[in-house]
Amino acid sequence: MVGIDNNRIIKETFEPQPTTIALPHYEMGYWGARKLISLIENRDLGPGKSKKTVAAIPPLDAPSPVRIRCTLLERGSVVNRATAARKK
Question: How many domains does the chain have?
Fold first, then answer.
């Protein structure tokens, strides 16, 4: 089982804890806000840098759809095949 968004309530409720994809919310908002400002002001804002970003931020002129890397958080809902084979 794999979830999306690394939801804390889901993580704390289910056993085993579900594997999830942690969405880079800050980076998505940061890129979107910079893109919107560049469109409104009709100018290039240059490369954006923020101390809070974890994932790489694509350039504002990147082709759509823009992709920002997500992190897969493996938890108890996935089984390591090597470990499972040894248990048999």
Answer: 1
